[in-house]
């Protein structure tokens, strides 16, 4: 339990095994190293300390401010704590508190490979969470909920291979690209509010993800969003208001979904969207605005029959390998394409076809 007076500190628990190696903190006022009295007038940057005995110690670090960073072409000023020394990173086993006044946890615990525990709350006022826990492979659980002030959590938990549950997202979050990429133990995600404008690869590689999340109607991309989510059996609903040019390339590739859900009529590109969905047996609809369906259902080996006519997709211009390697498929799109120069080869390597349309 963190005392009220200590809420101003970002607090780490560290395991010191080699007293010859100093503990180093790059940014932040270290008021206590855990082995003695408080430090009087601590330095703001480049502090270090040697212990006399091995053991478990608690570091209390007050966030320091006005350090400028650029991340993905976005400039921001950070008030927070930063540890860059790889040896010190390996010592950290728990994050017990994030100090009040912090506005950024950018790379706060990056590459803390022995971090196993994290506080459940994070103070309001934190805006940036990019790469905060990237490569924390032993972390099983993090915050219950992110603060309403949070806006960018790009790659926040990327490669946290033991993380099982996502924190609840705030109502104004904007960027969630690759947030849980390669979190191979993640079972439950978090709904996306309509303020999210980019969800690139958010759940890429989450092989144990079971539950569909609510998608944002404002995101310009869901490229790779659920790639290789093999345990995901139900497709999330695609919001009606999603942008026409929203990128769904490989969005659901190699997932476990058994049926597609209604795709908004204005969507014009579904490139490899459902490729290698080996459990897929039903296609609910294709949007009439669809122009590019390259590899859309390639390798859907359980798909047996489709009920689609070219008149349903009058704008379809590229159907290259659209239904290729669907080994159980007995028919392809019926009718005649409206665009005579349409690229086809849509039934390549379909050995079970009983009806083939000439295009």
Written account of the structure:
This protein is an all-beta fold. It has one helix and nine strands. A hairpin with a 2-residue loop joins strand 6 (64-71) and strand 7 (74-80). The longest helix has 6 residues, at 86-91. The N and C termini lie far apart (70 Å).
From the structure above, extract its key features.
single chain, 359 residues, mainly beta, 5-stranded mixed β-sheet, two-stranded antiparallel sheet, 1 helix, 9 strands
Briefly characterize the structure:
The chain is an all-beta fold.
State the end-to-end distance: 70 Å
Q: Judging from the principal axes of the Cα atoms, what is the shape?
A: elongated
How many beta strands in the DSSP annotation? 9
Approximate helicity band: under 10%
String of helices and strands: EEEEEEEHEE
Query: What percentage of the residues does DSSP assign to strands (E)?
Result: 5-15%
Helix vs. strand class: mainly beta
Number of contiguous helices:
1
List unreliable stretches of 5+ residues: none
């Amino acid at each position: 339990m963190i005392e009220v007076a200590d809420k101003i500190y970002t607090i780490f628990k560290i395991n010191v095994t080699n007293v010859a190696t100093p503990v180093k903190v790059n940014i932040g006022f270290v008021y206590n190293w855990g082995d003695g009295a408080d430090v009087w007038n601590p330095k703001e940057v480049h502090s270090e300390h040697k212990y006399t005995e091995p053991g478990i110690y608690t570091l209390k670090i007050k966030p320091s401010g006005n350090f400028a960073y650029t991340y993905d072409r976005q400039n921001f000023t950070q008030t927070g704590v930063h540890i860059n020394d790889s040896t010190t990173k390996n010592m950290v086993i728990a994050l017990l508190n994030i100090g009040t006044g912090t506005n950024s946890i950018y790379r706060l615990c990056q590459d803390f490979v022995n971090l196993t525990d994290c506080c459940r709350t994070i103070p309001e006022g934190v805006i940036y969470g990019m790469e905060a826990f990237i490569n924390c492979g032993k972390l099983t659980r993090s915050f219950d909920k992110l603060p309403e002030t949070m806006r960018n959590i790009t790659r926040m938990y990327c490669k946290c291979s033991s993380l099982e549950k996502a924190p609840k997202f705030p109502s104004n979050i904007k960027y969630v690209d690759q947030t849980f990429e390669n979190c191979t133990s993640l079972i439950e995600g978090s709904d996306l509010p309509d303020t999210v404008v980019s969800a690139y690869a958010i759940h890429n590689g989450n092989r144990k993800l079971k539950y569909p999340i609510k998608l944002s109607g404002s995101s310009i991309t869901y490229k790779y969003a659920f790639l290789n989510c093999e345990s995901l059996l139900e497709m999330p609903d695609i919001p009606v208001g999603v942008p026409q040019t929203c990128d769904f390339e490989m969005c659901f590739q190699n997932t476990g979904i058994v049926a597609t859900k209604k795709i908004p009529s204005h969507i014009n590109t579904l490139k490899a969207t459902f490729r290698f969905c080996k459990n897929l047996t039903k296609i609910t609809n294709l949007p009439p605005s669809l122009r590019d369906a390259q590899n859309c259902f390639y390798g859907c080996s359980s798909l047996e029959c489709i009920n689609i006519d070219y008149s349903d997709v009058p704008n379809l211009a590229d159907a290259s390998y659209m239904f290729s390697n669907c080994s159980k498929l007995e028919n392809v799109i019926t009718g005649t394409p409206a665009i005579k120069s349409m690229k086809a080869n849509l039934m390549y390597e379909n050995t079970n076809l009983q009806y083939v349309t000439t295009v």
